[in-house]
Amino acid sequence: xxxxxxxxxxxxKLLIWxxxxxxxxxxxxxxxxxxxxxxxxxxxxxPADVFDIPTTSVSTFVLLMSSMSMVFAYAYLVRDDIxxxxxxxxxxxxxxxxxxxxxxxEFSEFYFHDDLSPQTNLFGTTFYALTGxxxxxxxxxxxxxxxxxxxSLFRNTVTSKTNLDLDLAxxxxxxxxxxxxxxxxxxxxxxxxxxxxxx
Amino acid sequence: MxxxxxxxxNHIDESHSHPKPMTxxxxxxxxxxxxxxxxxxxxxxxxxxGIIPVLAFLSxxxxxxxxxxxxxxxxxxxxxxYVFMSGLILATVVILWxxxxxxxxx
Amino acid sequence: MTTIPFKLPLNIKLYRPVSPTGVWGWLxxxxxxxxxxxxxxxxxxxFLTGGIxxxxxxxxxxxxxxxIIAPEVYNQLFTMHATTMIFLAIMPLSAAFFNFxxxxxxxxxxxxxxxxxxxxxxxxxxxxxxxxSSWFLGGSPxxxxxxYAPITTATFNPGNGIDFWIIGLQVxxxxxxAASFNFIVTIINLRAPGMxxxxxxxxxxxxxxxxxxxxxAFPVITVALIELMLDRTFDFNFFNTKAGANPILWQHxxxxxxHPEVYILILPAMxxxxxxxxxxxxxxxxxxxxxxxxxxxxxxxxxxVWSHHMFTTGLGPIANxxxxxxxxxxxxxxxxxxxxxxxTMWGGDIDFKTPTLFAVGFMSMFLIGGIxxxxxxxxxxxxxxxxxxxxxxxxxxxxxxxxxxxxxAGIYYWFPKIxxxxxxxxxxxxxxxxxxxxxxxxxxxxxxxxxxxxxxxxFTYDSGMGWAFxxxxxxxxxxxxxxxxxxFVINMIKxxxxxxxxxxxxxxxxxxxxxxxxxxxxYNFRDIPIVKSLDDFWHTKQKSSNSNTKVKSKTKVSDxxxxxxxxxxxxxxxxxxxxxxxxxxxxxxxxxxxGIMLITVCAWSFEPVNEPDSH
Lengths: 199, 106, 615
Prior knowledge:
By secondary structure, chain B is mainly alpha-helical. Chain B is 68% helix and 0% strand.
């Protein structure tokens, strides 16, 4: 057997895409639960009572920019510009961590200031479960990128030849980003829009 | 000859016809503008239920841009697109149907 | 033992084992054939435990108003019986065939991710042990295999039984997902040259479709189980009706998963039958493209029918009508498959060996189960049949007469390939007839008592209901099935240890696995075959039957490099088990388990994959 696979595509890249397709069902089930329970049970504190759209807009912006930073890191790695790769990699990790920081801040704000805990009502339950699961995905992504960054800094094992290692992590990272695009629109913006006729 | 060895050979289907960093930057700017639009329309109370198609359009556009350019589905093998889209479409259809059963669209 | 050293971050030095032997060899194996055998043996032991649970259930029901088994234990028995048979027996028995047969059928030396494959097995074993350990740790789950919330929430179901069920299923889900990702990539990407998708053997096709269904269905149940776990462990409100939760939500999420799941259970068996029938009819499969399309259509439609499990929850006439129609539609592709099997046998030179008998048994039993299925696909008549023994009869016709018969056909069919020895044909036929008659005598009368209104999941019944005779009859017949399985076990042990040598190709097979020695060497194919048509091996044999000269192999065995063994898959699964038990008992252990998993996954990814000499 040579290096060729049947389709000419790498096993691992195919694996990550199959995984992402499957993860769509995972997040769809969580978002579905959130939407089905929207507006049931004890209504306050609800989305409009706790969300601060400007703050979340900033963290959304940070996560979007981390995706840009990620593609830069990848583009420079492919060109074997290791120094630029490291800079963009570092900035991606920092932005990912900043997003997580925002989420911790937001959660503690809701919890201590707005008296919204997962036990309070259905909104609390579904909101914390959905965004918490997303946060967990981001955390895994940060750890993953962190290990690659560490390998580059101290072991010098990350080069254009091993760009697939970074490609897989990057695909995962962008996926986490697009899930947030959906969550931001559905949970935050749609959830607190004040223009609906009945409300 | 081991199966895993070839997993490590990373040169397959890479580094051809990928966009330049400048393209990535333009894409990022498009994403920023779309996000800004989302936040802007959020304050247009007069849109009423019209907010739903507007938000849906804007977030689907962002979603599609990231998937096509940053996840380079536009440049990669169509197989990846099929694999990912089948999961995505099925997820959307099933969840919309489930919401319909819970009386969302009546 | 030789090892290859490698370094982790922080300069931790570790070693990768090279060709260990004995127990250590099994614990670190990444060979798909060994993993397949491990899957098969473990799953069969689980099948026996599920069978013991079934026998206890039937014994309690042998006569009215018996008190052999307490109602609480009876609830645990039927829950564990179904959970065991579905998740610990049928699915992993199918997985055993996926592992052993798929790489051989597509002409590959292993699966795409051998270590991930080993991890799938160890995670499956972990899930099985978590689930079964509940019997010894304060009681098993007792809410049915579907675990309807809110009856499974902490308010209504205190104790640890449901927690074992949640954690066990989660771990099994991880195992199944990992295996399915692996098989999808393997089937797409490791086919031998010339093996196009439309030249794949049908068993491989069915595996492919099953794996796709699985990776899309399991995330849904995973979310539902996480929600239930959060409810039970951290007082979330997902299924807390006091907080306004909807008691139907769980049912929806469960059946969105649950209906594709039934196709996950039956499609591999259909694949096996589609291999057995052409071989023993000595004819190519009839309507190959139609078979592939029908299975794809079944898999797709499987997503659009889930609420037919919930007709009586009051979805309203529109939803009930839509789901009635979509459900009835599925009968069409299933009928296509049935006619194609008949077409395959029609005019064939049929050799009624044990695998053929089981395959034909599968067809007839699955047909009956399918017809009763169409009966309650109609929502109006389902109102009469819901939660009665009629449904019990239906599922046992499709899952026992269907899936299990198909799997038994597969075991007999591939036994010579897996072990290199022939099973005992007389015992095999005896096994079939006892199981076949036992199955019909046990489950057919359930249609009648079901129509008379006997509800399922009751631990006993009143003597005045008129169900006594048939229940006693069913129990005796069920013992006959157990006797049939005993004969099977004797046959397997006897033949594996002392059966006569089978030879490479005892059935005059059609697919690539029969072109290599039995049992296959570690590297499977000395030369990777080049495939020119469907059933290529059979056509090659036809052409070269007169010349009878074997082409000399160009590949030296010592040149074939195989994936090295690894102990990380096992250790990750150990971390997963500790984390799982932690959620049931003490979250500190969950933290420890996750820590172990992080470290072991890290070590796994840094493990060298090159041969020692290629450094």
